[in-house]
Design goal:
Family: Belongs to the peptidase C48 family.
Helix content: 25-40%
Number of domains: 2
Low-confidence stretches: 61-65
Distance between the termini: 86 Å
Strand order of the largest sheet: 1-2-3-4
Shape: elongated
GO molecular function: cysteine-type peptidase activity
InterPro entries: Papain-like_cys_pep_sf, Peptidase_C48_C
Strand content: 15-25%
Mean pLDDT: 72
Largest sheet: 4 strands, mixed
Pfam family, one: Peptidase_C48
Keywords: Hydrolase, Protease
Length: about 230
């Protein structure tokens, strides 16, 4: 590594930490370590500090006392920040989702009158997600054991499946601003929204290639004969 630092202007070090890859770039010219990480977390700081200390020692031994500094570069954050769990809960379609952020949380979308009965289910879901993630080596993720974030709606139970689809499509995106329509008290606004969703989604689902099938040849022949007669 000493020779590499002596010769290289920039040295690229891909690091696999807790099943996640991030990149360290060492710049000899600027005596700087650049960190590029799409999913930053506190547990990686120890890894970076270890590399920084090693470079400081190498610098004293071979690069005339260079003192490296650390700089975290802005990179596009990892897109998959949510795990969505659509659930048919007591006859209503709700969406419970695990949100990975600086403050990890379980977020639920359901009817305003349903929250009290949905909340214990979501807390239990968060606890199970904690256990599953820990088994996979993601020790830095922990969902709260009592608190649940919430988006409420007045959409009728019969239309909850369409409302849940819309929530999954827009939650955490630039389209989320339109999601305020769920919170409207005006039934006319809600009914118009559901009408739009039904007109757009229902024909798409019904006509999707995975939703079509063919009848047996014998039946096709009978249909053809019927048409002739």
């Amino acid at each position: 590594m000493i020779d590499a630092i002596k010769k290289g202007v920039k040295i690229f070090i891909p690091v696999l930490h807790e099943k996640h890859w991030f990149l360290i770039v060492i710049s000899r010219k600027k005596d700087t370590i650049y960190i590029l990480d799409s999913l930053p977390c506190k547990s990686r700081e120890a890894v970076i500090c270890g590399i920084l200390e090693t470079l400081q020692k190498l610098g004293k031994e071979s690069i005339a006392g260079s003192q490296y500094i650390c700089e975290v570069l802005d990179v596009q954050r990892q897109g998959n920040k949510y795990i969505y769990c659509p659930v048919l809960f007591q006859g209503e379609w709700i969406v419970a989702c695990c949100v990975f952020s600086s403050s990890n949380q379980v977020h639920v979308f359901c009817h305003k009158d349903t929250l009290a009965s949905v909340k214990p289910f979501c807390i239990d879901l968060g606890a199970k997600a904690n256990s599953a993630l820990k088994r996979c080596g993601y020790n830095q993720v922990k969902f709260p054991d009592r608190k649940v974030a919430y988006t409420g709606t007045n959409i009728k139970v019969n239309d909850s499946a369409f409302a849940s689809m819309y929530f999954i499509e827009n939650f955490g995106t630039s389209g989320e601003i339109h999601f305020n329509r769920f919170l409207e008290k005006n039934d006319e606004v809600k009914d118009e929204f559901i009408k739009d969703v039904k007109l757009g989604l229902l024909p798409y689902l019904l006509n999707h290639k995975n939703n079509t099938g063919t009848v047996p040849n014998e039946i096709s022949e009978l249909i053809k004969k019927n048409k002739r007669t």
